[in-house]
Structure prediction request, 479 residues.
Amino acid sequence: MSLRDRLRAGSFAVTAEISPPRGASTDPVTATAALLRDWVDAVNVTDNQGSNVRLASWAGSLAALHAGLEPVMQMTCRDRNRIALQSDLLGASALGIRNILVMTGDHPKFGDHPEARPVFDLDSIQLLWTLRHMRDQGALLSGRPLNPPPDCFLGAVENPFAPPASFRAERLGKKVDAGAQFVQTQYVFDVTVFTRWMAQVRDLGLHERCSILAGVGAVRSRRGLDFIRDKVPGVEVPDDVYRRLRAVPADQTAAEGARLAAETIKELSAIEGVAGVHLLMAGNEQAVPGILDEAGLVRDGR
Amino acid sequence: MTAKPPIPAHPRVGTRLAYGLQRALRPRRLLHWLSARIEASRLARPLFTTTERLTKDTLFGCRMCGQCALPVTGYVCPMGCPKELRNGPCGGVGADGGCEVYPEKRCVWVEAFERAASQGRSADLRLLHLPIDHRRWGESSWLNYWQGRDEELWTREAGGVGDTGDNRRHQPVLGGS
Prediction:
């Protein structure tokens, strides 16, 4: 069953994330897709994540598709203008890539080419709107008709933890108005703050118009923990979570991180309006089966 | 595009005064007539545009995109956002409200939200801003505003159908027909 059908049917969905390699081979994507295939419903393929050059998202998505795992192609506004972005959607749709996740993207300053020109011709909301218009109106921004129009299932991201906190649910509302059919959130380490955000989302009725997948990360090492806390823009690791992961011996951090992830998934799945979880594993995909098993989310049982 | 890079700037005009000026200078027949005369003059037009540039640079850090969003962003310029986001903050805002790219500066959208809310104008931030026309950099947005050419910058609904609300803007680019 496709991600779109699964979410429409109201079944709990699990997605994960793959970063394509820095190199001219899709083999690593194929290998990870084969590992995740029996555990998740779809896998995001990142678009030059963190502004570092990697194999193109569309190529990684195609490799996942060929490996039998439905891809979610990520598209950022950082590197391409409206001409290239519209062209990419047509290409993806023609290749059978249906799920498109739209985001603004990190600034080039944080990547391996900080001297690059930041594009940001459209913002994420304008891009969602553009892609929906291409699909539903069958036309480009210019008004020129598309024959045939693309077929796509549009996703967005949201960070419930970044200021201004009281505007974050409304900002998701703008994305839903613009065309978002599903949303994947930033890492949820603070379930209390996430629960508060979900209450605002429900008040606006957004959970009925858009499937909400909560982001869950599994910390693998102390270094990884510090990186997530200090280097990933917009991520907050609460002190009690930080202390819990530091309290175990360094060689136990991965096991404790996986336990915490499984517990978080259980808590999140009990919140009204949460349609699934999005696993942010940062290269630690082999831990996915264990975490889902512990969280009681064996695929066939879901 | 402009030589001036996008860096968050903080308005030097209080929110109440800015909204007061907005009411005083809203498009009406006299200003429509006057702005048409200025546009038609080879001397007055560049002089007026330069005056606008200097004034708005001093007050708002204006970069002359020519498609002014200030009236619906609490008079904080969104083009000072390093990602030039016109529809709200990105996900990288620091816990202290700092910009992701220039952490020592406040996110323009955090400030816009506070300023708009302080005057009961938070609903402004729900408007959907359409993609801008990059051919218009350097133009006078005041003249564009009084001439009614700014009316396609934002809309209340993204759908393009069925909305007849007052704030509805025409969408010749996105889903209009």
About this structure: The longest strand of chain B covers residues 128-129. Chain B touches chain A at residues 82-97, 100-101, 107, 109-110, 113-114, 122, 125-126, 128-131, 134, 157-160, 173-175, 177 (CB under 8 Å). The first helix of chain B runs from residue 15 to 24. The helical segments of chain B are 15-24, 29-40, 44-60, 108-118, 141-146.
